[in-house]
């Protein structure tokens, strides 16, 4: 096995199976692959492992592509931008796998097995019942011809091909992250299925070799498979790549992140929920990996790449803590320029089908409101409810009950005075609005600022808590402000 070294341009790959929405773990692994490829001046490859035809889901490959691109982790080579090592979908490489399976049979390293699924199930059940230490395939077919085997029970006409794992199989290997690893003895693994498709084990070895992969990085669930892969490399006369097993991502309760139980296991969820790709990337960089800077966890991908080192990966299951992601997302939102923030909000609305996306007036309001809501946003999804009052027609503005409940007994007086001030202002900008209201309500009526401005806020926004009041009033404009103050005033005297 080769050790990863910085002097050789690496070829890394991520090899997801297109079985539904991409898993967040695919992005996590791709992140480390891309970092290593960039650091060494190499290339990052996407290979689609679609040999399990029953589980392949239409459209999944497209999502893998678009999600990786969204995160800035687009492959340098893959099915949609092939390099010289294609095809990049395993279903298009079947003759290759068969050729190597046959070579292994000829060399005596693999054999046909005609055992029916029923026989294998019975064998497993018997082994479990007898509590024998002897588990795995019993080599019933080893050394038999088809005709000889056909005379025995549990025969199936379409054979699989199995590896003949020798007694002295090496059960130790060096992992680029974990160092020396010891695994249990493997079974006579099926490498070619009855339908002519390879299993993962044969395909991964053939493909990693033929695609010139120098570092195979994958999830820790594959550790026990590695001795089988190393046997295949040895038999085929190939040098294995460096092999690294990343820790599995875990929920805060330490359970494994699964798409069935945790919405955040789906990469699409982060786009839907309004996270910025750069924040998610930064978050993933910090999972099982130390921050680049001693004093902050906010770091760019380039900084991560510059000091990337496999040895720094921590193997204890990293905790997927969304509170941390929320914090990071807020930090990234606050770094965006006003224009960029408005653009991200509108793009998010386009993706999620928010009606405002197609309305030029709403887009203009977003541009004006971006600076006043930035501090309050955790995700882009927060923007729509936060500025809804700016987009609602005056007559349709609803009033929250808890907002109405805060109105003091003299609210009518406050609203009258506010109307008068706003109607008379020459300059309808936030600071002039604030100065005018302060003079009339705080100085004129002798109210405390909180009491003075509360009814104005409720009238203009319908809510108890809102983005900054005077800036909101400026965006609404004089006519809307007067209409809204008048509407609440009328409601109070009704
Ligand atoms: N298709 C495998 C998976 O999704 C790939 C494992 C590997 O990268 O070797 O886990």
Mean pLDDT: 95
Rg of Cα set: 32 Å
Per DSSP, the total helix count is: 20
Distance between the termini: 83 Å
Tell me the number of strands: 9
**Biggest beta sheet attributes:** 3 strands, antiparallel
What portion of residues is helical? Answer: 40-55%
**String of helices and strands:** EHEHHEHHEEEEHEHEHHHHHHHHHHHHH
| Unreliable stretches | none
Strand sequence of the main sheet, in spatial order? 3-4-7
What structural category characterises the helix and strand content?
mainly alpha
The oligomeric status of these chains comes to: single chain
Strand content: 5-15%
Bound molecules: glutamic acid
- From the spread of the alpha carbons, the general shape counts as elongated
Per-chain topology:
Blueprint (H helix, E strand, L loop, with lengths): L10 E4 L9 H17 L2 E4 L13 H11 L23 H13 L3 E6 L1 H14 L15 H5 L4 E9 L8 E4 L3 E4 L7 E3 L7 H11 L4 E5 L6 H11 L5 E5 L20 H6 L4 H9 L15 H6 L15 H14 L2 H15 L7 H14 L9 H9 L9 H4 L6 H14 L5 H15 L4 H13 L7 H8 L1 H16 L1
Parallel strand pairs: 1-2, 8-9
Antiparallel strand pairs: 3-4, 4-7, 5-6
Helix pairs in contact: 6-7, 9-11, 12-13, 13-14, 16-17, 16-18, 16-20, 17-19, 18-19, 18-20
The chain binds glutamic acid.
Glutamic acid binds next to strand 8.
